[in-house]
Amino acid sequence: VPAKPLSYRHMFDDCRNLIYADLSCMNATDLSYAFKDCIKLQTVILGDMTNCKTVDYLFQNCIELSSVNNMLITNKCTKVSYTFNNCKALKEVKNMELWDMSAVQSMNYTFDSCGIRDLKNIKNWNLKSCKSMLDAFKNTSAMEIDVSGWTINEDATVAMNELFKDNKELRKIN
Questions:
Q1: Cα angle value 26/58/66 (rounded, 5°)
Q2: How far apart, in whole angstroms, are the C-alpha atoms of residue 83 and residue 71?
Q3: 5 vs 140, which has greater pLDDT?
Q4: 105 CB burial (10 A radius; 0-12, 13-18, 19+)
Q5: How many whole angstroms separate alpha carbon 111 and alpha carbon 85?
Q6: How far, CA to CA in Å, does 149 sit from each of 50, 119, 120?
Q7: pTM tops 0.70
Q8: How far apart are CA 72 and CA 28, in angstroms?
Q9: What is the pLDDT of residues 6-65, one digit of tens each?
C-alpha cells in the first residue's frame, strides 16, 4: 500500500478491454474518471478509500460492470456524481449501508441508468451536506428503495429534480 495517498484520476479511463481490476493495495485521494468508459470491465476490488475526496464519474459507462467490492465512501468524500451512471449490468455494490455520505455535496446522476435492483441498504444515509441530487436514481432497475432514514438539511435548498424518474421496475419506496 502506498504510504502517501495518490490521485487515480483518469488512470484507466477508456481502457476498453479491461475486464478485472484489483486495486486492494491502493490508497486514493481522487478516483474521479478512474474507470470511465471501460466498457468491458466486469469486476472491481477497491482498496483504502479513507482519504478519497471525489469519485465523480468513477465507473460511468462501464456497461458490463456487475460487481464492485470494498467501495467505501467516507466523511472526506464530497462528490459522487455520475459514479455508476450507465452501468447497465451492475447488480450489486457491496456495503453501501456503511457509506458515510455526510460530506457529499453533489450526487447528480449517481445511479442513473444503472442495473442495480436493490437500494434498501441506503436507508440511513446522512445527506445533510448534499445540495444537489438531480436524477440520482433515475432509470434504475431497482424494485425497492428505502430512504426512510435519510437525514437532509431542512434549512438548505436541495435540488432533487427527477430523483426517481423512469424507474419502471419500482414497486415499493419507503
A1: 90
A2: 11
A3: 140
A4: middle
A5: 5
A6: 24, 13, 11
A7: yes
A8: 12
A9: 899 999 999 999 999 998 888 899 999 999 999 999 999 998 899 999 999 999 999 999
Query: Residue with C-alpha cell 475486464?
Result: 19
How far, in Å, are 9, 84, 130, 135 from residue 139 at the CA level?
A: 27, 12, 21, 8
Strand partners, 69: 45
Mention every residue, 6+ apart, whose C-beta is less than 8 A from residue 154: none
Q: Is the dihedral of CA 49, 68, 93, 82 positive or negative?
A: positive
Task: Give me 149's grid cell.
Answer: 432514514
Nearest to 156 by CA among 129, 136, 125, 123: 129
Per the DSSP assignment, residues forming a β-bridge with 71 are none
Buried/exposed 124-146: b ≥16 CB within 10 Å, e otherwise: ebbbbbbebbbbbbbbbbbeebb
Please report, for the chain, how many H helices and E strands are present, in that order: 0, 10
Do residues 130 and 101 lie in contact, with contact meaning Cβ atoms separated by under 8 Å? yes
Which residues touch 48 (CB under 8 Å, ≥6 apart)? Answer: 1, 5, 26, 27, 28
The Cα-based distances of 161 to 130, 139, 157, 165, 172 in angstroms read 14, 13, 12, 9, 19
Query: DSSP assignment of 59-110, as one string?
Result: TTT-TT--EEES----TT--B-TTTTTT-TT--EETTGGG---TT--B-TTT
